Amino acid sequence: MDNATIIGLGSMGVAGLTMAIGSIGPALAEGRAVARALQSIAQQPDESDVLSRVLFVGLAMIESIAIYCFVISIILIFVNPFWNKLSTG
User: Fold this and answer.
1) Are 55 and 33 in contact (CB under 8 A)?
2) Per-residue model confidence as pLDDT tens digits over 1-50
């Protein structure tokens, strides 16, 4: 097995692991945040506007984690910096 194959297999494995963790974690966090927000709105209906606003900001921040993991996976697969080191060195 040559170095290019090892780098390719490592990149694919790490990209898959990144997407697995990066999709499961935010999905669980979003579900928990929505459940808590709905519970809070049910207990305090007068504060629903504030709670909804905070919920949407929190959901955006949670979703950004999944997007970062997706970008890292794409970089590992298509623009891996170790490919250049292998070809030059």
Assistant:
1) yes
2) 787 888 888 889 999 999 999 999 999 999 999 999 999 999 999 999 99
Tokens found for residue 16: 């898959």
> Which residue in 80, 75, 83 sits closest to 4, CA to CA?
83
Contact 7, 83 (CB under 8 A): yes
d(CA 32, CA 39): 11
Taken as a whole, the chain contains a residue count of 89
Given a contact cutoff of 8 angstroms between Cβ atoms, the answer to whether 49 and 37 are in contact is: no
Q: How do residues 38-70 score in pLDDT, each as one tens digit?
A: 999 999 999 999 999 999 999 999 999 999 999
- Closest by Cα among 35, 12, 28, 36 to 63: 28
Supply 44's token pair: 């305090």
